[in-house]
Amino acid sequence: MLDIRKKIAEILLSEDEPFLSDEFAPEEMVEASDHYEYEELYSDLYVTIRNMEDFYGDKSEPKAALLLESFLLEAMVLLKKDPEVILVESGDYFVKGTGYTPDGEAVLRLFENVVIINSMAELYNQGLTEYGLPAMEYGIGIATFPETITEDKDELSQDHVDQNEENDPHEIAFQLALRGNTELFEPIIVNELAYEMLADVDRVFFEENLVKADINELDLVIYHGNIVTDDSLE
Fold first, then answer.
1. Which of 2, 19, 42, 132 counts the most CB atoms within 10 A of its CB?
2. Is the per-residue pLDDT at 73 higher than 50?
3. Are 67 and 124 in contact (CB under 8 A)?
4. To the nearest whole number, what is the mean pLDDT of the chain?
């Protein structure tokens, strides 16, 4: 996490007038194959920011927006480096990764990305609040689902706001992320199938760190918690 701390400090301590570079434009950072097939079990990892007006409003500080964009960029790069993540999408307020997860070990490897992203978010929020800037209101959802369908690049790059089928398997992680880090739930929320597969690998750890709950409006059983890497806050 030392590199993350350095990047945060460079943005905050820069004496130059900050500007929003195209390098950080998350809406352009979409990687998707033209055609692929879901088979067996897959998992979506979704990171979303809810308070975008605090970063792009009329009275927002440019450095705050740069830190937000830097966080989304780091999350996207992390997922793109994972060979088991077959699709990475991003936009102004989100990063999403889809991985092939046929067993608990594969879900655990994807969950490790969740923990790293959550740890990075805490570091970015520390930097923001120390300089009197608004913290990111973020949530992270991970959902495992069985399905066999064909997707194409145009369909996958559609704005998620326009998709209203909350129980669509491809929307569950998004719905979970929207509810993460709120009064009711911790930042990380996983659906029941993902939890069961994680618990098959290390039941003691996940029983100690994730709490069972219900999202009544979605008719979902979920598990939520706040897990960070051991060195994230050193």
1. 42
2. yes
3. yes
4. 84
